[in-house]
Amino acid sequence: MGSPSFRNGLVYLILLAMLGAFLFSSVTRNSESVNEVQIKDLNVIATQINDGDIASIKVQGDELEIHYRHSDRIGFARKESGVSLTDTFTRLGITADELRDVEITFSPPSRWENWGIILGTILPIVLIGAFFFFVMRQAQGAGNQAFSFGKSRARVITSDKPTVTFDDVAGAEEAKEELEEVVEFLQEPEKFASLGARIPKGVLMVGQPGTGKTLMAKAVAGEAGVPFFSISGSEFVEMFVGVGASRVRDLFGQAKSNSPCIIFIDEIDAVGRHRGAGLGGSHDEREQTLNQILVEMDGFDTDTNIIIIAATNRPDILDPALLRPGRFDRQVVMDRPDVRGREAIFNVHVRGKPLADDVNLATLARLTPGFVGADIENLINEAAILAARRNKRLIGMSELQEAIERVQMGPERRSRLMSPAEKKLTAYHEAGHAVVSYFLQHTDPVQKVTIVPRGMAGGYVMPLFDEEAVNSRNRLRDQLAFFLGGRSAEEVVFGTVTTGASNDMEQATNLARTMVASLGMSDGLGLLTFGQRDELIFLGREISEQHNYSEDIAEQIDNEVRKLITEAHERARQILTRQREKLEELAKRLQEDETVDAVEFKALMVDTAPATAAS
Ligand code: ADP
Ligand code: MG
Ligand code: ZN
């Protein structure tokens, strides 16, 4: 983007220089003419001839250049065109005799003279015009598009370098299977055409940011060995009106001359929004761009081997016209990876990195629920940086685990000073969570307990998630008790509660509400679910909740929620009262060492025979 604006600068400079030179030259010509006299009235010349003042007259066309005897002045005059010099003098009343002493020379009329006049009058107009033209263009084109607006900025990754393959995309086996077909079609279109099969034109990749949509699209091109044209939906809209559509035309034009190939449209929701829908208002430019995409897709001949892959994380807002058969009629979902998927992604990204022997990728996968591919790539990079800063030659488990916490909660805040009282309170709070978790049957094992603050949290218990476990009612009930463990410990030990428990309470309330209203897990309300939720299941996001129940039911829901929480609270308190010794021991250790790992924690807990609480 640097070169066009540089070129523009150059054009400016040249134009300015030319204008300057012109102005300068016209100024200097005027100053030279001190000795030059323009003679308008030819009778003046007649008088001068009569007085014998004139030495010579040079005639060039109609121009007369008059040289004087006693002065170095030069006079200029113009005779009437079409009238000969002799006739002119006769009209002025000068006889041939009077002219005898005046030397008269003729030279052919100069072309340059005429050109000079033309240039002198037209050039400045042209220059000023050009100057303004460029200024206007510059202003319109936002600085860098003056020479190439309308051209799509699709980048070509040529087919001779298909570096990414399906092997580089881990944990998305179903998506790969679906796309295998696309690869086959790009490689051997005849096979499908001979059977009269309608070839897929568009594939829509749906998934949260960082789940590998772009990577997967590239891998399809890599596997098939075809060129990959990519453009982002937001690039279509950023420019001024009319350009989006012409970019689409240009992009498809480029692609057609490079077929077979893949066109990748990232963030298609930026242009493909439901037309005329309220969100963001109607936007002509966007609609034109979208229409052009539809026109181009429909205009494909069946023998054009182009597959269009589009990516979005908002399939719900796409215009239905995009999803019609013959357009993006195939959807491939790039899900958040599960434990096995994450382990596979870890495997891909630790390739070529020096790992210590203690690194266990399966454990890492269990420590990173909710992480997507991009997060995992990022965390391995963080771990490598940590290892380098610690002057290690290998990346160890401790670096990886720290990197996870960093990515999840932000950096440690070791510098934050805790008063001894605050430290003691936090130690009991976190120990409460951990002890409750240990003595419940359906909770995840504790991987680490710490009172070193990180991000917003004052301390935390890190569970080793078991995603295989079914979210049964018992598991969720135990989860509730685990959330309340910190607060309960504060109550049991100090008899009061602090504000540190507020986040726990929020989590507990949300979980209890979901159990009652959506999962049918309450005694009183049974199997009914309440509240219509607009939720994107695989995106795990709740957009809105409609209250489709009465005040009466709302009250019952509140009662059931309260019941669940009270019960969980009771169970947590019971465990902590019974296991007071363990709680004290762990809290003491935390105050000394700040962090207790899984092995140490277990050793502390099994010290005496564990008494399992009634569930
Ligand atoms: P999206 O386009 O869905 O936002 P990207 O394809 O840009 O995500 O992913 C960003 C990076 O995350 C990729 O370059 C890759 O390194 C990593 N990544 C994401 N998903 C995976 C995966 N399934 N396997 C391996 N790496 C992945
Ligand atoms: Mg992307
Ligand atoms: Zn807590």
Write the layout of secondary structure elements.
Layout: H1 2-32, E1 36-38, H2 42-51, E2 54-60, E3 63-68, E4 74-78, H3 85-91, E5 103-107, H4 111-140, E6 155-157, H5 173-187, H6 189-193, E7 202-206, H7 213-224, E8 228-232, H8 233-237, H9 243-256, E9 261-266, H10 269-272, H11 284-298, E10 306-312, E11 330-333, H12 339-349, H13 361-367, H14 373-389, H15 397-409, H16 420-439, E12 446-450, E13 460-463, H17 473-494, H18 502-517, E14 532-536, E15 541-546, H19 551-578, H20 580-593, E16 595-597, H21 598-606
Parallel strand pairs: 1-4, 2-5, 7-10, 7-11, 8-9, 9-10
Antiparallel strand pairs: 2-3, 3-4, 6-8, 12-13, 12-16, 14-15
Helix pairs in contact: 1-4, 5-7, 9-11, 12-13, 12-14, 14-15, 16-17, 16-20, 17-18, 17-19, 18-19, 19-20
The protein binds adenosine-5'-diphosphate, magnesium ion (MG) and zinc ion (ZN).
Please tell me the total number of domains.
4
Name the strands of the widest sheet in spatial order: 6-8-9-10-7-11
For the CA atoms, what is the radius of gyration? 43 Å
Overall residue-averaged pLDDT value: 80
CATH class of the largest domain: Mainly Alpha
- End-to-end separation: 66 Å
CATH-defined fold name of the largest domain: Methane Monooxygenase Hydroxylase, Chain G, domain 1
* Small molecules in complex: adenosine-5'-diphosphate, magnesium ion, zinc ion
What's the total number of strands? Answer: 16
CATH architecture of the largest domain: Up-down Bundle
Helix content: 40-55%
Largest sheet: 6 strands, mixed
Give the class from helix and strand content and strand pairing: alpha/beta
- Percent of sequence in beta strands: 5-15%
The CATH H-level homologous superfamily of the largest domain: Peptidase M41
